[in-house]
Write a structure and sequence with these properties.
homodimer, 398 residues, alpha/beta, Aspartate Aminotransferase, domain 1, Aspartate Aminotransferase, domain 2, 2 domains, seven-stranded mixed sheet, 13 strands, 38% helix
Chain lengths: 398, 398
């Protein structure tokens, strides 16, 4: 039996593909420290649980396809709080940011249409783009320049007659880059002038460590036709397993097309939507505390990483990821070896190999993505295991 | 801004597209009786709520991409109970049967590849097929022959070099057709002999009213390479809003490809999976009671429908839908009129117009799909409203 060319182009997630090896390794009794996955240990707001436990309908019914009104209102209120007014029709609730992405790609990309994405990129973008038949055109960035990409000449040089959209993550995954206001304007103008959809994944909005005001491309009032925002409660409220996201656009025709797909997939889980709506009532101090905690974690990771000979990285400004270049040829092979041939006091470490965050073949082989989503002690121990692993791995080859 | 050709081919759901009109109609104070949507009023098993209320982790974390082990085990046990042995790797948990369908289509259909589907069909198949770039080739059936389609010559006559799969719903939505064992064998042989994937949507398995043993194509042991089962807890346990389904296949290469997509979309909602796992422990008497109730409902609908002059239909053998032909030219226009120009004692009725269940242009215009998922009194009143509506609509034109 043959499979579609689309699926043949897809790869396993660099964040999740080692799950079977992880299970094997744990069977040996080895404890694994996770730097691979953006699964925070921050407590999910109590409101989520309260709303779900309060549910007393006899039947768990389908929700409306656009989302339950309470949650749509909650999202509107949240945006209003950062200075952005949305109408209910500008928002549809999705099964995580993931579904928002795949709905968007299917709606704007035809076979061979080009989606510009600064690289390194969130690897699942590649899978969703492949499924739509679209083609990711990576915009290369330089680790030595902090992976910054908001340069009009750079962006413009990748535009072709097949270009349909530009997709960015701000704050950045996996790079932690946070765009300045001027950079945002450059990108908005670039999309507008070239008639491109501007798809902005803003799921890490709260996680900025330089004292910036929370921002969104939806603050600009001249790119309504272009702009599509990908949003989610997963990281904002540490509720990844709720699978509740949102797709936001003021382009009415775009939203009308999206609604065809929303109706076909019927609805998003009802109880999780109720829980999500309640989470949006969480006091703002929650974000301040969480931001402060992540900043400490970032600093702990950077401090430990800086001690490892041959490791290079920039201090990330936002999100909770960091790209580091290791003194290792192939971080994918190194990770496998960490499962099968390494342990220190019964412990090993897991990261996401960098190559999976590049669309360009051969790039990122020496890089890794680190998610700093656990407490500082856990992270320090993880990075020390990484240091010991690098030393042993390179000694082995010598 | 332009949109993809894929989305331009998609339509709104005939089941959900009237939602805005419905809201307007309700604002006028009119009560709407719903025959349009398969949203049962059967109580969701208590186990679902108990499992969710028992959850006491501090963080709602991502679940594993294939699904939580408890739920995969529960699905295995359930299949074992109907005589089918599955291994854990044969099952992935999905966000409803809907996601199982879209993952499958993306994995097996390339642009222009053909998917054979007996018609009338569940309309959302068309949307998911369009998104994958595949093309639905409808296999026509005849209301006068009870919409039966398991005829080798008929099926074979629609095979082309681009045929990749046949998709059937058994028991049938929207027709209520239940395949006999011999018919199942004909279809299995057809798929096998032609090297086609056989995608069987078995979400209505429990809903058979002729005393049949519960069956699944997975009972056949010679079509492992071909067979993909679409399954869901939505109808089985009246938990549509949980959005928990499953994709089942013993084709290892197919499942390996599916896993790429499962990793990209990360996971299915964690709490709903816990609830679903618990529901699978529901006593078998639940199904017997529910089946008995639906049979009564079917009989009530048929009894009332039979009283309406000019209405034709067959008594459905399974699922909880019925296709009826009305003495009306265009049931879509008729439905709009029922919202805007009709009421009887402040009440009106809503069905799903038939054309949306056909891929062939022009077909089904006089047909409607009725979902008999509410209590008998509700259904009798609904059909009487339909009768009054037909009479007034046709009198208006005269």
């Amino acid at each position: 039996m043959n499979f579609s060319s689309k699926i043949e182009k897809c790869s396993y997630s660099p964040i999740r593909k080692f799950y079977p090896l992880q299970v094997e390794c744990e069977k040996k009794g080895t404890k694994i420290y996770h730097l691979n996955i953006g699964q925070p240990d921050i407590r999910t707001p109590q409101g989520f649980f309260d709303a779900i436990k309060r549910f007393d309908d006899e039947v768990v019914e389908y929700a409306p396809s656009p989302g339950i009104p309470q949650l749509i209102d909650a999202v509107r209120n949240y945006y209003s709080g950062i200075g952005v007014e949305l109408s209910a029709g500008d928002i549809v609730v999705t099964t995580g940011g993931s579904e928002a992405l795949s709905l968007t790609f299917s709606t704007v990309l035809d076979d061979g249409d080009e989606l510009l994405v600064p690289e390194p990129l969130y690897s699942n973008y590649l899978t969703f783009a492949n499924l739509s038949g679209g083609k990711v055109v990576p915009i290369p960035t330089d680790p030595e320049n902090g992976y910054r990409y908001a340069c009009r000449e750079l962006l413009q040089s990748y535009v072709s007659p097949r270009s349909r959209a530009i997709l960015i993550t701000n704050p950045g995954n996996p790079t932690g880059v946070v765009l300045t206001r001027d950079e945002m304007r450059i990108i908005a103008d670039f999309a507008k002038d070239n008639g491109l959809f501007l798809i902005v994944d803003e799921v890490y909005r709260e996680f900025v460590y330089g004292g910036q005001k929370l921002s969104s491309f939806s603050e600009f009032d001249d790119i309504d036709e272009n702009l599509v925002i990908i949003d989610s409660v997963s990281k904002r409220f540490s509720a990844c397993g709720a699978r509740v996201g949102a797709l936001i656009s003021r382009n009415g025709e775009f939203m009308a097309n999206i609604m065809k797909l929303c109706q076909a997939r019927l609805s998003v889980a009802t109880l999780d939507q109720l829980g999500a709506a309640e989470m949006y009532k969480t006091d703002k101090s929650f974000f301040d505390e969480v931001r402060c905690e992540y900043k400490k974690r970032r600093d702990a990771v950077c401090e430990e990483l800086a001690k490892i000979p041959g490791v290079r990285f920039d201090v990330p400004e936002g999100a909770f990821y960091l790209m580091a270049t290791l003194p290792v040829d192939d971080t994918d092979a190194f990770q496998r070896w960490l499962f099968t041939d390494f342990e220190l006091d019964g412990e090993t470490v897991m990261f996401a190999p960098g190559a999976g965050f590049y669309s360009s073949p051969g790039k990122g082989a020496s890089e890794i993505r680190i998610a700093y989503v656990r407490n500082c002690d856990y992270l320090r121990r993880s990075i020390r295991l990484l240091a010991a692993g690098i030393e042993a791995y390179n000694a082995r080859k010598a």
